[in-house]
Amino acid sequence: MCGRYASFREDQQIADEFAIASVADDVHLLPPSWNLAPTDPVRIVVDRPERLEDGSRGALTRQLRTARWGLVPSWAKDPSIGNRLINARVENLLDKPAFKRPFALRRALLPADGYYEWQVPEPGAPTRTKQPYYLHPPDGGPLALAGLYEFWKDPTKDDDDPTRWLVSATIITTAATGELARIHDRRPLMLRRDVWDAWLDPAVDAAGAMELVLGPAPEVVATPISTAVNSVANDGPELIRPVD
Hints:
The chain has helices at residues 11-17, 97-105, 178-183, 196-200, 206-213, and strands at 5-7, 22-23, 33-36, 41-51, 57-69, 87-89, 107-112, 114-119, 131-136, 143-153, 165-175, 186-188, 221-224. The chain is of the alpha+beta class. The radius of gyration is 18 Å and the shape is globular. The two termini are 25 Å apart. A hairpin with a 5-residue loop joins strand 4 (41-51) and strand 5. The strands form 2 sheets. Strands 2, 4, 5, 6, 7, 10, 11 and 12 form an 8-stranded mixed β-sheet that branches. A 5-stranded antiparallel β-sheet has the order 3-1-8-9-13.
């Protein structure tokens, strides 16, 4: 699974890396974080129609927006279901009701600098403490985590209430292979730059999007770090410093 990640790159850096045309106002209110956790507000990259002054929709534009981590389907009775939908297994995207429609229409990229996994000690090891790892690109570039997003309307709020709509997102996971599987059997689905446009394009249907997830993943390296990352109360660059 992917239950914790880091996203501390500045908004302008993300806009440049992902060719973003529009940055939502609330994005600027998010501080950098080395320890994002489920239900936190996170930054997402989406291709959405531009909203014109008269209320109509214009051409597709690439936007940087915020969403709550934990997908809340449009049909949900309340947003608490999002606490259980922080990840979407790639094996379930085409049939699970919560993921099927957004996979076809509302795909996103979640910019990350790296993510965390915890390795269970080998049998007979002198400690039972899980070893956390920070997994990140070796060149320091950004990661694009494949995700889905959804809109949920709060039925208890008036139509003219600007907070009536909740935007939420989930991170897609897949089976880990090679050295990554030694740490954890799952990993977030990371997309290479050459498929970002197709992934975000709502004109690409579910079958086309599924072909994209089968491609090779970007390279990441695993750095052992301290257990300070275990607590969501801790945040800062010291969390990703390597330890022996």
